[in-house]
Amino acid sequence: xxxxxxxxxxxxxxxxxxxxxxxxxxxxxxxxxxxxxxxxxxxxxxxxxxxxxxxxxxxxxxxxxxxxxxxxxxxxxxxxxxxxxxxxxxxxxxxxxxxxxxxxxxxxxxxxxxxxxxxxxxxxxxxxxxxxxxxxxxxxxxxxxxxxxxxxxxxxxxxxxxxxxxxxxxxxxxxxxxxxxxxxxxxxxxxxxxxxxxxxxxxxxxxxxxxxxxxxxxxxxxxxxxxxxxxxxxxxxxxxxxxxxxxxxxxxxxxxxxxxxxxxxxxxxxxxxxxxxxxxxxxxxxxxxxxxxxxxxxxxxxxxxxxxxxxxxxxxxxxxxxxxxxxxxxxxxxxxxxxxxxxxxxxxxxxxxxxxxxxxxxxxxxxxxxxxxxxxxxxxxxxxxxxxxxxxxxxxxxxxxxxxxxxxxxxxxxxxxxxxxxxxxxxxxxx
Length: 431
Description:
Layout: E1 2-6, H1 12-21, E2 25-29, H2 33-40, H3 52-59, E3 65-68, H4 71-74, E4 80-83, E5 88-89, E6 96-97, H5 99-110, E7 117-120, H6 128-141, E8 150-153, H7 163-169, E9 172-176, H8 179-192, E10 207-209, H9 213-243, H10 248-255, H11 278-285, H12 290-300, H13 302-314, E11 321-325, H14 341-350, E12 354-358, H15 364-369, E13 383-386, E14 406-409, E15 423-426
Parallel strand pairs: 1-2, 1-4, 2-3, 4-7, 7-8, 9-10, 11-12, 11-13, 13-14, 14-15
Antiparallel strand pairs: 5-6, 8-9
Helix pairs in contact: 1-3, 5-6, 9-11, 9-12, 13-14
């Protein structure tokens, strides 16, 4: 097959590589010329994706994968077009911003030829595939969905850093606008993916027919919103437990020993492209979902809560230097999308503190580009807040942070035996 993948980001590029590794001719489209040039030079544009560089070095010289900025080069004659363009959500209104996706859809529609399968993998509000993309593509292409081309939704279900493993691990969900479109999509994904054996699943691992695009759209929103709600519940349990002299981690461990309880862990922030965003996309369709809204608000309040824990232990933060440990949204991943570092730094500044940021994955220049003042190793600090559970922080001690008096460990990732003589506060644990 000839396959076009639109948007070569941290999900799109590994997908393009996966498709090419199965013997297909793949052309990736991206508006960023530097990304296109790096891919064509067999160089990964971003670090940290296991196996990506090695596969690029194999596939690009072999002519199986190339990149372009030109839709006219990639879309005409394609058997399948897979779209992984980002969808943003406005922080103030929680409304989706379809700007980039509208532009990409218009460009592909202008060059669409009959016989193509179009699959959206970007997480969408329920109904978007049918009510927004179908009429837009038909209008601009002059083609009819269901006869001239097929349109489906098939959500990506992977985490950056382990995309290739996750593609094998989880069922591929597919929902079309017609039975013929769904059948075509199932055939496509079976030709480009491999799946691990999963005896724990109710049916065999592989491509699962969801029955409709709407069901596939909702499945992705449901699985991510569940995690946000679960984390919010853990956070509220943690705040209550700490106020009443209870270690919530002991409580959660005990609760989860019963097979119907699956409580997550509390923490300073919920970050990344998915969990903080997709509940808002669900609320776009279902504004009456009070549980979802309350959970999102509860999780968004955790960085400020962490700063309040610091204030309780240290007193006024006015003029005090506080190092935030971790700019990334989660340990081991060089990504700051919706990272808790930003609201944590903002809350520290609002309290009069002088925040600085350390992250083993980022250079000082990279932190400055993010608007985060870098911590200079060995400089004295009054306190520290651990925001990302990088493995490097497991061995952290007061000797690494001269003068530190209080550590607020937002991930329970430090070794308490190393912090004798320093007030160590963990979210969900009593003093």
